[in-house]
Amino acid sequence: MQMKNIIHTIFHFLIWFNTMANNLISTTFIVVLFSLVLAGKSQTFSTNLPRSTLRLGRQNLTRLHFFFHDVVGGPNATAIRVAAAPITNTSSTGFGAVVMMDNLLTVGPEPNSTGVGRAQGMYASADLNNMSFMMVQNYVFDEERFNGSTLSILGRNPISSPMREFPVVGGTGVFRFARGYAEARTFFFSATNGDAIVEYNVYVLH
Q: Its quaternary structure (predicted)?
C-alpha cells in the first residue's frame, strides 16, 4: 500500500513537472516573440508622417542680401588653394585647382561692414575651356534672426558672367527644408592678387 502511494505521488509530480515545463516554454516563446515584434517596430526603416509633425505648413519666402569677401592673397587670406592637378599651372583656366574657404559675409561691400556670417566650403576649377568653378559652400549665419542657421549651395560658377545663379539645396535651423536659388554678381575684382567681393541675392523658401 505504501509503495502504491509512493508511485501515485511520483506520477502526479511528473504530471505537474511536465505542465510547468510546458508553461515555461510557452511563456518563454511568447516573451521572445513579443520582443521581436517590439524590436521590429523600433527599427522600422521608413515611416509616413503627417506634415504637421515637423510644422510643415505654409512656407516663408525670404530674400537675403550680402557681400562675399574672397581674400586669396596676403597674410590674412580666407581662401587658400589646397590641391591641384598636374596640368593646373599650365592650364588656361587653372583646371583642377581646389580652394578651401572661410570667407566673411557682410551687409555692405566694405570689409569692415557689419558681418552676418561666413561662407565655408570650397570651390574648384572644373572647366578646361572657360573660367568656371564648382561651388560647394555653406552660408553659416550669425546675424541675430538667423544665428546658427545655415544654407547649402552647390552649383556651377562661370565667374566671367555678369550674373551667376546657384541652387540652394538645403539648410538647417530656421532654414530646414530650404530650397531656392542664389544670384551672384562680381562687385570688385583685383587683377593683382585675385581678391574679389561678390554681391549675393539669395531667395529661399523655408
A: Homodimer.
